[in-house]
Amino acid sequence: MGRFFNRERFGNAQIAAGFLLLIFIAECAWVIAHEVPGTASLDEYARIEAGIAQWHGRGIAGMPGTGAAAFDRSHSPVWYLIASAPVASFHIPPDSLLWIWLTRAPYVLFGTMLGGSLWYVSRRLFGNAGGFIALGLYCFSPTVIRTGSLWNAQPHIGAVWGMFGAVFTAIAVSHTLYAPREVVLWNWRRIVLLAVSLALAIGSQFELAIVVPLLLAFMLYLAPERKAAAVGILASAGSIAAALVFCSYFFHPGLFWQGLLNAKPLDINWRALSMPGAYLQVSQEIKASGPLMAVLVPAAIIGYLVWRRSRYFGNTAPFIVALLFAGLRIGSPHASDSIYSLAAVVFLFVFVAGIAADMMETKAGGMVSAILAGLLSANALSNLIWLWNIAH
Known about the structure:
α6 crosses α15, α8 crosses α10 (about 225-250) and α14 (about 315-330) runs antiparallel to α15 (about 340-360). The chain has 16 helices and no strands. The protein is mainly alpha-helical.
């Protein structure tokens, strides 16, 4: 126990990060507390009812004949089972305050875990400064708080947490491939973690399967002399993830197969790439994640392009993932609440934190730190004003 509860695991940095995450939970709770019972969207009621029906053995959610007219081409039963799990065993009226709190609880948890993962990854990559910049942007982001509390938002936060975990777990696995021990046995914990992350991400949103080729590219880049091991590890994790998603179909192979055949891998309108309005929409959605992002994202991109020191893998990987999902959002501009925007924003938090942490290590680091402290404080204040306006 002494090795677990040490200063490396539970020092001042961890306490400060925990405090920020408690603020995030309080912000989500504030939003939930001001939601009027009985005003959830029809889509949410249908999603939860379909999940409850499956929990009670009345068919498989998202399949024809179980309240759906056709196959759900975007989500596996994972999407429905998570949404309905807190209320599946109780007879709680959907117009009650308790129903609201219970149905929001899983997504507040996912949001908190994503925030913790974001801080952990950013701190490992860029030090304490990078970790707290990323977490500060995250915890005071209206976009994240809306999604975590389901305030006029789709429950995308769990899928994004899974996808975030998949990306950085794959990167972590790649860094261990040169260890002298047997590869599979040495990495089995990370393989399981990668599998669970993929199952949560792709099971919640089939379109996130697009991240798998990117994971393979990262792994092959980081371990070019262990390509077979990288492919084997990703294939093993993918197989376990498929088995986990199969479990969500309650072990009906025929329905599982039909679900995969009807899955929609992408919903992209390539003509949208020539529409200026689609690019403007993405920029507005990034700005909506926090007014400071309108300044930091362009500054970080310029810094990355002109400053050679900043172009290393720790900054490049989140930038590539953010560009991928921003591009996918541009190609699907008509979705009212796209998971692509949320995914892009989360990885931009990491990218911006990395560039900012690099700037803080220069001769002008003191001035940069002071400016960033002021900007982050102003960004947090703007978010608190937004929360106050919800109640009024």
